TrEMBL record:
Coiled coil: none
Source organism of the structure: Lophiostoma macrostomum CBS 122681
Domain of life, per lineage: Eukaryota
GO molecular function: oxidoreductase activity
The protein's name in its UniProt record: NAD(P)-binding protein
Gene Ontology CC: cytoplasm
Record keywords, A-Z: NADP, Oxidoreductase
Length: 264
């Protein structure tokens, strides 16, 4: 049964134990939001929840049951869900191109794809259904893509593929869900120095080129504040934001075909 502890807005944030998720949680906490944080790391997740005055649920975002339990727990605790920040992500932890010792090669580990794409799909799907049940129907979903979601990233092809898919998923969902007063957008961060990689990996990047977590916070806040924003892919490069437009149709045949596909 919902406690409805306050009438403030309620947010679910995945990947909230550190990095961009924690930075956004801190920002919302200062504004009085009720926060439900999710992470695989119990230690950092519980510490983050304690810091921002929220609740924590250990969540494997690749598990639909884990995410469903997270959403229901949040609804039971706070009575509604106004914002979902589908942010959890990891990078490829293996060399995609390594030569196999024999054929067929061993199965490809797809945890990166599952976290970065399947997890986002689950969060967004559940967010849609729970936001439809809000006292004032509607809400905001923000998915985390990456610069690797619009540019090639040869060393991390599975990560890049998943992040490209997030952009397409967001645009497709946004085109359908507005009737429910739900806005769907995604962020496309530049390189942000988080615990996604170890210190040795980060040394490969010029430190002056890093985008700060505060820049991500500002972009997410902009999306929350601007009630006209829906279907936007917001690229963040250091302290600058860019709205990345969809490719135009190559010809009228494709326009007609894809317009019909939108009604299936």
């Amino acid at each position: 049964m919902a406690t409805n502890r306050t009438k403030e807005r309620v947010a679910i944030i995945t990947g909230a134990g550190s990095g961009m998720g924690l930075a956004v949680a801190r920002n919302l906490s200062r504004q009085g939001w009720n926060l439900s944080l999710a992470d695989m790391n119990t230690s950092t997740g519980e510490a983050a929840a304690k810091e921002v005055g929220g609740i924590f649920t250990k969540t494997d975002v690749t598990s639909y049951n884990d995410q469903a339990a997270l959403f229901q727990k949040t609804k039971d605790e706070f009575g509604q869900i106004d914002f979902v920040y589908a942010n959890a992500g990891i990078v490829d932890s293996y060399n995609f191109y390594a030569a196999a010792e024999k054929l067929p090669p061993p199965p490809l580990p797809l945890l990166c794809q599952d976290v970065c794409l399947t997890g986002v799909v689950y969060s967004s799907y559940l967010g849609m259904h729970y936001m439809r049940q809000n006292p004032d129907k509607g809400g905001v979903i923000v998915m985390t893509s990456s610069a690797a979601g619009i540019y090639k990233s040869p060393a991390l092809p599975v990560y890049a593929g998943a992040k490209h898919a997030v952009v397409g998923f967001m645009r497709s969902m946004a085109a359908m869900i507005g009737k429910d007063n739900i806005r769907v957008n995604c962020t496309i961060p530049g390189v942000v120095q988080t615990n996604l990689c170890d210190e040795e990996t980060w040394k490969a990047f010029p430190s002056e080129r890093f985008t700060k977590t505060s820049d991500i916070v500002n972009a997410v806040q902009m999306i929350l504040d601007d009630e006209s924003m829906n279907g936007q892919a917001v690229e963040i490069s250091k302290d600058k934001t860019y709205f990345r437009e969809e490719l135009d149709f190559c010809d009228e045949n494709q326009r007609a075909t894809m317009s019909a596909a939108g009604t299936i």
